[in-house]
Amino acid sequence: MSPPPHSGLTRSSGWGHCPYCPLCPPGHRSLSASRREQETRPALPGGLRVSQPLGAGHQWTPCCSWGMAAWHVYPWGVCCPRGAWGGAAGRGPQEPLCLFQSPRMGTFIGVYLPCLQNILGVILFLRLTWIVGVAGVLESFLIVSMCCTCTMLTAISMSAIATNGVVPAGGSYYMISRSLGPEFGGAVGLCFYLGTTFAGAMYILGTIEIFLTYISPSAAIIQAETAEGEAAAMLHNMRVYGTCTLVLMAMVVFVGVKYVNKLALVFLACVVLSILAIYAGVVKTAFDPPDIPVCLLGNRTLSRRGFDICAKFHTANNSTTPTALWGLFCNSSMPSATCDEYFAQNNVTEIQGIPGVASGVLLDNLWSAYTDKGAFVERKGTPSVPVPEESRASGLPYVLTDIMTYFTMLVGIYFPSVTGIMAGSNRSGDLRDAQKSIPTGTILAIVTTSFICILGGAEVWGVQAFGEALQGKLVIGMLAWPSPWVIVIGSFFSTCGAGLQSLTGAPRLLQAIARDGIIPFLQVFGHGKANGEPTWALLLTALICETGILIASLDSVAPILSMFFLMCYMFVNLACAVQTLLRTPNWRPRFRYYHWALSFLGMSLCLALMFICSWYYALVAMLIAGCIYKYIEYRGAEKEWGDGIRGLSLNAARYALLRVEHGPPHTKNWRPQVLVMLNLDEEQRVKHPRLLSLTTQLKAGKGLTIVGAVLEGTYLDKHVEAQRAEENIRSLMGVEKTKGFCQLVVSSNLRDGMSHLIQSAGLGGMKHNTVLMAWPESWKQEDNTFSWKNFVETVRDTTAAQQALLVAKNVDLFPQNQERFGDGDIDVWWVVHDGGLLMLLPFLLRQHKVWRKCRMRIFTVAQVDDNSIQMKKDLQVFLYHLRISAEVEVVEMVENDISAFTYEKTLMMEQRSQMLKQMQLSKTEREREAQLIHDRNTASHSVVATRTQAPSTPDKVQMTWTKEKLIAEKYKNKEPGVSGFKDLFSLKPNQSNVRRMHTAVKLNGVVLSRSRGAQLVLLNMPGPPRNRQGDENYMEFLEVLTEGLNRVLLVRGSGREVVTIYS
Q1: How far apart are CA 354 and CA 286, in angstroms?
Q2: Is the pTM of this model over 0.70?
Q3: How far apart are alpha carbons 881 and 392 in whole angstroms?
Q4: Helix (H) / strand (E) containing 489
Q5: Residue 948 lies in a domain
Q6: For the chain: N or C, fewer Cβ within 10 A?
Q7: Both 755 and 890 in a single domain?
């Protein structure tokens, strides 16, 4: 659909979509209309029509919800002006509409001038001369050079990111979040927001300082009673006036950003005129230095307040009289009065405060002059006679330092004067060619401002540090031409405008973060007025800004915002370095003059400057960013922006997998890498969720966890169920806090699917070495014949794959992660040495809070002729070297006769097996006949018991089930009935089965006698028989072995698990 020719509409990147408004995703509204209406005027949502044709270069587009009115804060770029509502008469308010102008701004208006205005600010006018006077020529040049180099390297990285696609509103937050992910983006975005907010407080404090110090000192509300109280009174005045100014500015921003936009050019003009006035004054000083005298007593600077003549005596009309200065330092105005010792021994001289470029005073100021708080401001190179007792009496007109100075503090104060390089990238949507304008305009602005700062420092290198010596006048204003008021008024309006811009931009940055939804508790700040103005974000910004104003000291606020800006710049460099090193296919910036080494150097310089400015502020800023990062990682919404951190993780994972050897790991690196085999019900839900709880409790091994499941069928028929099952498993993994991977297989039968998982789960060297599964509880039921067959075959598969096997019996009785065992035992029955896996598992479980208070006991089985005492000592020494604390006990098992219970148990097992193999009965008949066999054996139990009381051995048992009888049975009548079972009653159990059952019953009795009340029992799991006909008997043996125990973990090692005693 194309717009009509007369409407002047232009086609954008998707009809009905504002490409420069970040809240309008393409294609979220249908703009269908009749053909006739399409030919007359463009269609709008809800059946609305544009009542008037739009001018050339404009377009109607819908916003998602609140609109994005005046997203940008300067008049050289407005996305969605207010008032563009599409409500029809009688229909109520409709969806807000964006009316935006086609981007027409070039490099100069769109990037260069905004950056220039943001960089040149309050620090240049109020603090540069002081920094140069304190730090000297060389160190001042080093400070300026470091800060400018930092911003230049950051601008190069930012140019590469900004030219790698469209950067909508959000500026640095958008670039970092889409390059490094939502965690870094949210953390650094909030830090950048806090930096911008504190910048507003700094600009407001600068405005008030200029007003109260240089424009109208008499306007101070709170007056100091003594000279010592002037500094405290000034801070209180800053708080009062600053709060009032903040409220006024917030009201202006709330009423409408259009007023701020209209004043933006005026504020910029003030900055340019002030800079030009300074340079004009510099040129004038070369041949006509200004007459600005500074009075010195010895080498100490004196304040001009309280006296006019810089001399001890004044000669007039052939008479010499003491001056007002004499009266300040002496106890009377008489020439014979007793004076201050330093005043008496030193001369009073007068020098020029601004001697000019050609005066040669540059060499005198090469080195720094750092002082403590309250020290005298002294001129280097001026003779002075020291006195034993330094005079600091109150009332003397000395100029004293009001703050302790050192190099790192000056770096923190100066750095805000080079910030503001993001102003152009924030307006990328309003530029005619953003990929050309952003690098060119930003870099040129940095070069220009760096030249201004360095040359400005050179101009004032001959100036004294404090304006107090110049009768309280602005030092850099005294340098300006034609009048100092040009600088005073220009700096006042410049700082006032910068404060307005900060209060306008910071809420919109917070609104962009809130609308991304990565920090849930900030979502309320994504809303505002109907036209999109961030009302709630403005309120929060004003409150945070007020905290900075209450600090009331420009020198204390500047290092705070330096931390936040430096952190933002550091991550911009990191983003560019990561993207460059990853070489991802989508990394194709048009700006070619970048390199990962430059970005890494810029990142390192930003980090170094953070700790140079203030190491404790740097740690606090990093702590804040780290907390925000972890909060977003833990609670934030899932966002997939194709960021570089995920790409870096993929590259690191690929590199690590290639380095991991495919062979068995070293014994010191062995750990359980678990494949958890889950069973699903008909609704694709997990049958035994406690199995994942057990997996989580074993996470102290820090190994790989793969959660696998099998769906029966074909993938084409079951792919929907497979997706649902995978979602259910992942959801349960999240609930149980199981960190691992989910792998679901659709197979024609469960047996093959489980075999495929055992063979193919994992990748490269990261493959599982242990399989964890649940015991088939209902395996004795006749309709679950295949369940125990699948189980036994899985045991064989793990043995063939040389993997360990863990089988949790009574898994539904295992504890959840929220439960706690106050006491109890974890008993390990170490019958067969399998490399130490039985020892390691309880140790890992006891690292979890569920099992932490449980004791570990190890039982080992010995024969009668074994040395039990020596076995116990050896086992204790072995555990000591393994660094595992546990109680050790040796249990002796005596060989005795086979009991009647063992005989009967074996007989029932074999009769049941033979009966089901020979007879083809219905389910009802099988149950009836099985009951009949049970009743028959129960009735004859007393007879069997009597026989077994006589001394006999298993060799004397008469075996009546012979091969001949089996052949004869094949030719008998096979019709079902009671007569077909009569011969089964005369069967005698197989001798080897009797012995196996005897061992299982005997061992079970011993375990029950010691571990009946244990919280968990770990047992060696014997392997399945080679002959598959004995699989059912194998299941029966395991059932008898674990009978009567609440929680059992059967462990079958592969022989490759070795728990080493070496470090």
Answers
A1: 11
A2: no
A3: 72
A4: helix 484-516
A5: no
A6: C
A7: no
